[in-house]
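Work package 3, deliverable 3.1, input record:
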Amino acid sequence: MEVLKLLKVKKSFGGVRALDNISIALSEGEVVMVIGPNGAGKTTLINVISGYLYPDEGRIMYMGEDITRYPPLERVGKGIVRSFQLVNTFDKLTVYENILVSVLSRKKYQYAFRKILDEYTDALEETENILKLFGLSDEADENIMSISYGDRKLVDVAISFALNPKLIMLDEPTSGVATKDKDNIMEKILDVIRKTKVTSIIIEHDMDIVFRYGVRIIVMHQGRIIADGEVEEIRKNEEIKKVLLGGVYA
Amino acid sequence: MVERLKRFFGDDIKTNFIFLTIIAILYPIIYVFSPGWGVVLGHGVTWISALLGFNLLFGYTGLLSFGHALFLGVGAYTVGFMYKYLGINNIELHLLGGILSSTVVALIIGPIVVRYTRIFFAIFMLAIAQILWSLYYKFYWVTGGTDGIKIPRFSILGISLEKLDFATYHHVYFYFVTGLTFILVYIMWRIINSPFGLTLKSIRDNETRARFIGVDIYRARLYAFIISAIYASITGVLAVNHHRLVTPDIAYWTTSGKVVFATLLGGARIFIGPIVGSFVFHIIESFAMKFIYWQMVMGILIIAIVILMPGGIAHLARTLVDVVVSHRRRGG
């Protein structure tokens, strides 16, 4: 079944075409990595799917429903979840609370005030499980700002997973992380994706990471999709390599 | 699991209740030695509600209101009008009236103001509060203008307090308000420690992300705004029953300043902060009033607080408790 389908989606900022006739289809459980040089429109793509921005033209279909004009809140309710390129967490809360608030929101308890948190054992238990899934249990009681940047990235992704998404979009989950930790974080995230079988779009800037972990790869350049296929296919294509390397190494 | 929700000194309900109980026990002793200071404690307990309400918005939702006098005014004038036009002096009915009228006012202005944050929210609130103040001030045929509305001693459950001597009357007032405050503190504590409380903190910390985990931030802020308004109006109701006079002063911006100052003094990041702040503020105010330039004294003080203890008194106390506890643990 098709989870997501973009039909000729266009988005411009002034004279710049950030998305130029983008059509993508994603089936259930599929994991796709999106790569491209700076300004290729990768983040705009996520912004349009998540409802952060509305497209100028084209349609976005989700589970057979036209969601092109749905506000973000409604899309979250339908299971469309995103993370951000820069770490986007709740900075004065603990790791545990960061994830708990997301679990509570999914369970529609976000405005409940008749009972105190301690009484929501189902939500507390679920939070524990998510912590375990991401290997964050030991840091659960720490303030989010006192853990390493890489782990904060993981918490960021865990907040998204706590919403039980049907479609998750991760905007450069390893950006800003020290090179030696990148593999570790990517592996943990992909491990969770495999276990939960959630349909995923992962934006990645790092070519090595994409070729090492990617299955299906979409290459974007100047707002257009210039390639969409299996990792081997893309790897062989010299033209694409040139675009990705942006003339720096060519 | 639940251990993760451990609450530290000042954030747990126990420390809050112990603190209030100590005040309630000390009050008669202090009153015997000096009725003046007994009255000061009366002020302290009266203002807790407003500060708790203010801090729900400031400390927990991240909205700084420079116009909370608005709701104190609504509470105060509800009492004034209830007495002037209906002859009601039952404090239970005053409280009920204050809660209802502040809810209505919060429902009217709330949906607009909660769309703003930071300085815009602060100034918006200040502006609305000043408009209401000017109405109280100018429509003297209704409000009595600067002369205000005189009200008699209140009655509780239909029992009149008119014949009591001042000391007994004040004791009744003090313990009535203290009892009420226990309830208000408990309710507020539960709200802050509920899922809704955590949602508010998440909005405070990161509005955008809160929206993307499925929180309608305007809705959550509106709820917080209404609760905050009710709490502030309760202090309005109590304060005018304490003074037995309703004047526009309570709705003036200096009252809003007092709310902000007292909360910062006590500590906005800790639940007990506003409670401690209310007492300490009124004690300092009484000392400062002995000087001609007492406002200047208060001004210097606030500068000192911001620089020397930005976390407020409660934060300082927590730090001290932490030091003592860890010292003892190491010693044992």
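The longest strand of chain B covers residues 149-150.
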